[in-house]
Amino acid sequence: xxxxxxxxxxxxxxxxxxxxxxxxxxxxxxxxxxxxxxxxxxxxxxxxxxxxxxxxxxxxxxxxxxxxxxxxxxxxxxxxxxxxxxxxxxxxxxxxxxxxxxxxxxxxxxxxxxxxxxxxxxxxxxxxxx
Length: 130
What we know:
Immunoglobulin-like, 0% helix
């Protein structure tokens, strides 16, 4: 089974001052032989406000949630909070970053992270020194 843990951020970089709260989205992680799958709750985040980065084996997901009110209506009560959603995970296995798929639908971000295939066996020719 693959290991995918929350990435520690304390001590890695200075904290930023923010005008909005930082929300930590709830996540579900599951896997198959070929890929890891990740689902994050990100209500109020639009697809163009999501940023996903895989740097080495650290997967960072961020987004900005906004409360939206349909035209012609006024907001009388809301429980979703506006803020910045941020979550980072350290992956224990190599992921094929060119094949990552992401979809945001009904406030849930779903990622498919295909595992990298091992390099095939290769014969190395030895040159003679002259």
